[in-house]
TrEMBL record:
<keyword id="KW-0732">Signal</keyword>
<dbReference type="Pfam" id="PF00497">
    <property type="entry name" value="SBP_bac_3"/>
</dbReference>
<protein>
    <submittedName>
        <fullName>Polar amino acid transport system substrate-binding protein</fullName>
    </submittedName>
</protein>
<comment type="similarity">
    <text>Belongs to the bacterial solute-binding protein 3 family.</text>
</comment>
<dbReference type="InterPro" id="IPR001638">
    <property type="entry name" value="Solute-binding_3/MltF_N"/>
</dbReference>
<feature type="domain" description="Solute-binding protein family 3/N-terminal">
    <location>
        <begin position="25"/>
        <end position="248"/>
    </location>
</feature>
Length: 252
């Protein structure tokens, strides 16, 4: 084998050994987005958090999770301060710096929330003309027509909770969010009697675990995907999904 190939293999092996030597702990960052991932009584919780923790446990690893604003999550991964991001949309332009686990953690359904006393029915893009829609900074909305349309205005809020607060105070006309996440937050904030959503979805997407593009993490990405697929076929996974099936009843 040529010397250069032996050197490359040695570097890759050293990277894997260095990763294992950290105590088999995967350092992830995320922004709270209940019920998928959030903090509860000072502890991490949520559907995708529990899925990730279980899969890593089966791989002999522990999970260390830090909550940050979304843009800081992206910067933490870019500068090597984290091993990966929990719950992120898979975009082609992110593949240069991120290694996406092939199997998704969850499916999301993006809908438009409105105040119950100020409904704006939505069936087509034209229905949104001249409205102000609340969005979250740094988030991706996969429907290109919605993402690029000039028919309406977009207004960012620092958090998903702030978006719902602006909605009930009529500071925005609509808010785009995942159906389950929006209902969960509305229940947590005591706003279910003030907030509803249009049943026609504006898009569907999937949430993934993305790791830093590092040779030491490539094997982990493949192992995680395989173990996640196995977990999804088990009764334990079905029970976990059932616990979070009703957005109005937070999972324990």
């Amino acid at each position: 084998m040529p010397l250069i190939q032996r050197q490359i293999i040695a570097i890759l092996l050293l990277g894997c050994i260095a990763f294992a030597a950290r105590g088999e702990t995967l350092r992830l960052v995320t922004e709270a987005w209940p019920p998928y991932v959030h903090e509860e009584n000072g502890q991490a919780a949520g559907l995708d958090y529990e899925i990730t923790r279980e899969v890593l446990s089966r791989l002999g690893m522990q999970l260390e999770l830090q909550f940050l604003p979304w843009k800081r999550c992206l910067l933490a991964l870019e500068h090597g301060h984290a091993d990966g991001i929990l719950d992120i949309f898979h975009l082609p332009e992110r593949e240069a710096s991120m290694l996406f686990v092939d199997e998704p953690l969850s499916e999301v359904e993006l809908v438009l929330f409105h105040a119950r006393n100020r409904p704006y029915p939505y069936e087509r893009l034209e229905d949104l003309r001249d409205l102000v829609i609340g969005i979250s900074p740094g988030y991706w909305y996969n429907d290109e027509a919605l993402r690029t349309s000039t028919l309406f205005s977009r207004e960012e809020a620092p958090t998903h909770e702030a978006n719902l607060g602006k909605l009930v105070r009529h500071r925005v006309d609509l808010v785009v969010n995942d159906r389950r996440a929006g209902l969960y937050l509305s229940a947590q904030l005591g706003l279910l009697d003030q907030v509803d959503y249009n049943r026609k979805a504006v898009g569907h997407d999937r949430l993934y675990l993305a790791l830093r593009r590092d040779p030491a993490l490539q094997r982990l990405a493949a192992d995680f995907a395989g173990e996640l697929r196995r977990f999804k076929r088990e009764p334990a996974y079905a029970r976990l999904q059932q616990r979070y099936a009703n957005p109005e009843q937070p999972g324990p």
